[in-house]
Structures are given as structure tokens and as C-alpha cells.
Amino acid sequence: MSDRRYFLRVLAGAGLAAALPVTRATTQTDPGPAAVTSAAITLFLCGDVMTGRGIDQALPHPGDPRLFEGYVQDAREYLRLAEQANGELPLPLAFDDIWGDALAELAQLAPDARIINLETAVTAGGRPETKGINYRMHPANIDCLKAAAPDCCVLANNHVLDWGRDGLAETLASLDAAGLGHAGAGLDDAAATAPLVLPLAGRGRVLVFAFGHASSGVPDHWAAAPGRAGINVLADLSMASVDAIATQVRAHKRPGDVVVVSIHWGGNWGYPVPAAQRSFAHALIDRAGVDLLHGHSSHHVKGIEVYRDHLILYGCGDLLTDYEGIHGNEAYRDDLGLMYFPRVDATSGRLLGMTMSPTRLRRLRVNRASAEEAAWLAEVLNAEGRDCGTRVSRDTDGRLQLHWGPAS
Questions:
Q1: Residues 295, 304: contact at Cβ < 8 Å?
Q2: C-beta neighbour count of 329 within 10 angstroms
Q3: DSSP assigned state of 137
Q4: Alpha helices for 13-126 (secondary structure H)
Q5: What is the domain count for the chain?
Q6: Which residues of the chain have pLDDT under 70?
């Protein structure tokens, strides 16, 4: 029996099978080809959103706290570390508490589409993979994701199958039942490779293709296949892979579409961008019709590039995690993050500008960063963006603005 048929039978008993789509083409009614009446769209992008483990334990419906890590065997230990670092938490946290000041930023900047990297399984079952660290959030806490209203949860990463294929099936069913779109994983390879299509009234569509690369810790056996659930694994960073992506993009892209490729790649720490990643990103723009590359995996922000007027984010850093109070690598300030708001021309995919909102994770909550913390982030982006020809400035609202090309 295929994995897909098996999972449908398993989930039917839980009343979830009806929520599983055959493909992940769109979560909204697609009006079909239409004239683009407004050229500019604003996206919201961020790096890792990890609502499992310690955060799950802080929410109203915590799951089984047992862990299988080398040093921590109870997820509540991550709550203790956070409280030890910054004071007692008012448990349980409300579903929207964890987003803190991010919700006001989203409301004020009003992006047309919201794309996050969801770095956790959403399951109460499954078996832990033998990989050292396993993230999961109980499905009853799904409202914490709904509070931020993401249009696309990228699932092609190294944690979404932490609780096996049963856990992935429940994750997909939970997101579908909550009306949350996703890309990069599915019950077979067709679903895992399909883009999530987000129609924007009068402004074309956003197509999100998502991939996970081995350099981020994605195991080879997690790859989706015919009749087997899994994620969309990017085999390598070769030109053959670029051409394969180009074929996928051509099959879906039409005038007025903005194509986002979201890739989980690279290690957790370190600022240098490998030459292979830069070459691959450039080729996606030159040869595959990609308009924007959304890279993540690093626990800290990395340098930004604008290549031929197209945005490349090599590493977005963390936005929401339970790492508070964990020691090691403090120099990278993984508690500081950015909410990225690029403005893109829908007719050409070219970057028009980008605002970034600096954040700090404290008390399991996304907070607005202080002026000093925002200045620290600006310094990092300016240092790491020098070779890419980008720089940032701080505006009067405390946000960062991206600049590229010759300095004026």
C-alpha cells in the first residue's frame, strides 16, 4: 500500500482525511489570467518560526513534553531557561502573545502576502526521528499560527519530519484544517514540489516554490517520492538543478506572477555566503525566471544581495524560537531578528525597495528591538552586504531601509 493511501486511512479514523488536498496549488479561488491593475506588491518574509518544544509547553494545550535530546529530556526545561534569563512567564500564554509587537508591524505595513519558514512539526503523534533534536507543537495550539495569518508556511526544512511521516501527515492535515497554506512538503512528490499559488486581486499572483538542501541538515530519506510522503529536497546546487527548477517555473508562471523560491540551506552559524550559493541564486534569476530568493537556516541575519534588481536573502535569521537562555554563540545575537517587507514590481519581479523591522525575542515574545539593537543589526548588514553592494539606513520610525547600487 502506498504511503498516501496508508495516511489517508490512518487520518480517516481521526476525521482529518477530508482536509487533505490532492495537490497544494492554491488556498484561494484563482480568478484565472487577468490584467494586473496595480504594479507594486509588498511581501512579508521571515526566517525560522519554531513554535514547538518550549513554546508549545507555554501555550494553552501543551503536548507530551518528553524529548530525546542528549542533554534535555523534558521540553519544560526550555521554559525554565527562558524564565531564568528574563523572569517568570504568565503561563499559559495566549495564542497571540508570542507574536507581540510583530502583529502591530504586520497591521501597519499591511503586506499583500505573508511567508514564514515553519520550523516544527504540528502533531501529537508520530515517532521521533533519530536525529538528536525533535520539534513539535500540539495541533490544538494551531491558533498561535493563525494569529499571525501567514499565507504560506514553508515546510521544506530539517524539522518538519522530526516525528516521521505520520507526524508529517498530521502536520499537513492540521495546517489544511486551519486554512493555512503551505509549500515544500506533501503526501507524495507531486504535492511536495507544487508551488503554493497566492492570487492577489488585480495584482497578479505570488508563486512560492520551497526546497530543503542537505547543507541545512535535511536527511536524504526525507525526500518525497511517488506514493511516499516527504519534503521537496534540493539534491545539489548544480546548473542541472537550476534547469529543473526552470522547468517547474515555466509550467506555472504567467504574466503578472512573482516567483519566490524559498530554500532552507547552510549551517546555523557563520556570516560568509558560500560561492556555490551565490552562483546558484544568480542562476535562478538568470535562467529560471525566479524573482526573489528567500533563504533561511542560519540562526542570525546574513548579508543581503540585490542581483540585477532582484532580491536575494541568503539567511533571514530566527524570528520566533525557544532558544532564550541557551548559552553559546552569543556573539551572533540570535535573539535579534528582522521582519522583511520587500516591495516588488508585479509586472517585472524587480525589487522597488525593502523595509526591515528589527525585533528581539524575549520572554518567548517578538518585541520591537531597541535603538541600540537596531543599530547593531544595521552594522552587521552593512558589513556583510559590502561585497554584495548593499547597505542599510535607519529611518525615523526605527526601521531599516535597504539601499543598493552606487552610493549617492
A1: no
A2: 14
A3: E
A4: 54-58, 76-86, 102-109
A5: 1
A6: 1-38, 407-408
| Residue 23 domain flag | no
Instruction: Give the length of the chain.
Output: 408
Backbone angles phi, psi at 104, to 5 degrees: -65, -40
Q: 113: helix, coil or strand?
A: strand
pLDDT for the residue 245: 98
Structural domain harbouring 329: 38-404
- Does residue 20 form part of some domain? no
Q: What is the residue type of 235? A: A
Contacts 24+ apart (CB under 8 A), 382-387: 383/303, 384/271, 384/302, 384/303, 384/304, 385/303, 385/304, 385/305, 387/303
Neighbouring C-beta atoms of residue 91, cutoff 10 Å: 13
DSSP H or E stretch at residue 176? helix 164-177
Q: Do 347 and 36 contact (CB within 8 A), yes or no?
A: yes
Q: State the pLDDT at residue 12.
A: 37
Q: Is residue 184 part of a domain?
A: yes
Which CATH number covers residue 397? Answer: 3.60.21.10
Residue 342 CB contacts under 8 Å (≥ 6 apart), including other chains: 42, 43, 45, 292, 311, 351, 353, 354
Q: Look at residue 26 and tell me if it is in a domain.
A: no
- 61 dihedral zone (left: phi>0; alpha: psi -120 to 50; beta): beta
pLDDT of residue 33: 45
Look at residue 38 in the predicted model and tell me its pLDDT: 58
- 402 in Cβ contact with 312 (< 8 Å): no
